Every structure is written in C-alpha cells, then in structure tokens.
Amino acid sequence: MSSRRLRRAGSTTLAAGVLFIVASVGFAQSQVAPTYSSATGAKSAAGVAGQKAKNRFVFGHHPPMTAVASRQGDNPHMMGLELLFQKYKVTAGFFGHDHNYQHYLKNGIHYVITGGGGAPLYDVDKPPDGITLKVVSTEHFVTVSVEGKTARIEAIAVDGRKLDEIEFQAGGQR
After folding, report:
1. Strand order in the sheet with 55-60
2. Which of the residues 37, 48, 54, 71 has the least number of beta carbons within 10 Å of its own beta carbon?
3. DSSP tag of 109
4. What φ, ψ does residue 147 adopt, rounded to 5°?
5. What is the pTM of this model?
6. For residue 108, is it left (φ>0), alpha (ψ between -120 and 50) or beta?
7. How far apart are CA 30 and CA 85, in angstroms?
8. What letter does residue 3 receive in the DSSP assignment?
9. Lowest mean pLDDT: which of 46-50, 53-57, 143-147, 167-171?
10. Hey, how many other C-beta atoms are within 10 angstroms of the C-beta on 9?
11. Which residues contact 18 (CB under 8 A, 6 or more apart)?
12. Is 72 within 8 Å of 33 (Cβ atoms)?
C-alpha cells in the first residue's frame, strides 16, 4: 500500500477504506474510565463517526473479555468500551495481554486476543459462554489483509496450521 493512501487523524489511520484505531492507555486502570467521557474522547469519537470506512479495526493491549479464569473481570475499563464499539460500528478488536489465542463474537463485533508470540502460555480454562468461537493455548501469530472491499483475518500456529479465519466483505462477515 502506498504511503499516499494513508491518512492520519490523531490515533486513527484510514487506509484503503479500512479505519484502524489504536486504544492506547498509559496510566493506572483506576484513572482510565473517566478519560473515555472527556472532551478529548468525545472529539476522537466524533472523528471516528465521520469516517466512511466499511471495516473498522481497534487495537489495544488489554482485552475486554478473556478465557483465562484468573484474569476475568480484571479490565473493567476495557469492558466499558464495548458500547462505543457498537455505537461506532467497529468490525473487530485486536488485543494482547493473555498469552494464547481467543476469538469471540459479541453483538456483531469480533474480538481477537492474540498473545502467542513466545512468552509462557496461559490456560484457556474458562471461555465466556455464548460468545466464544475459538480458544487455544498455543504459540501463534495473526495476519490481517485487505484487498479491495474484502478483509481477511487469519490466526496461524507456529507449525503452519491455520487456527482460525474470519473474512469480511464490505463491512459484513462472510
């Protein structure tokens, strides 16, 4: 993709009809929630609302849900973002933090937790009911490719096995 096709707007990038949003939080969890309702947050949300991208991807470190029993409920500041994701028609959210692979579908939004890059793996011992599509404790990587109106997400184990695949056509899952 040529650099002239990229347009930056704060913490968002629009490229070839896909909006990438980075949810970066650099302070204590107890201080996070109020910032999402601040004037700055409202201005950023308004910028996202005005984008015409069919596919909108959010990237962040802490996931709003997890299959790791000992971490469930640890990220209330991220759980609060789910309503914003719905409001602004986010296609998929990508998160790290948990050292395994998890894929959820909740209210039409895909949540991909990808933390299988080499650190000791965590058990996926308590997948959330009703939203879990795939959980596996294995080293892996995730690719996102966009061609025209089609976006494809693949999770690949280090031995080359395809763990998961999601494809979107013009803003809708196929």
Report:
1. 6-9, 12-15, 18-23, 55-60, 92-95, 109-114, 101-106, 132-136
2. 37
3. E
4. -130, 115
5. 0.76
6. left
7. 21
8. G
9. 46-50
10. 14
11. 53, 54, 55, 56, 57, 146, 151
12. no
Give residue for tokens 């096709």: 5
pLDDT digits (tens, 9 = 90+) for 71-97: 777 666 666 788 888 888 888 899 988
- Neighbouring residues of 31: CB distance < 8 A, sequence distance ≥ 6: none
Mind listing the pLDDT tens digit for each residue in 56-71? Answer: 888 888 888 888 887 7
CA 124-105-59 angle, 5° bins: 80
Greatest C-alpha distance within the chain? 47
Q: Could you give the CA distance from residue 124 to residue 127 in angstroms, rounded to a whole number?
A: 7
Which amino acid would we find at residue 78? M
Query: What number of H helices and E strands is found in the chain?
Result: 4, 12
C-alpha span between 125 and 149 (Å, rounded): 36
Distance (Å, whole) CA 97 – CA 114: 8
CATH of domain 3-139: 3.60.21.10
Give Cα separations from 3 to 145, 158, 169 (angstroms). 16, 30, 24
Q: Distance from first CA to last CA of the chain, Å, rounded? A: 24
Q: Phi and psi at residue 29, in whole multiples of 5°?
A: -55, -40
Q: Which token pair is 86?
A: 């719905």
Map residue 78 onto helix, strand or coil.
helix
Among all chains, which residue has been given the structure tokens 């000791």? 120
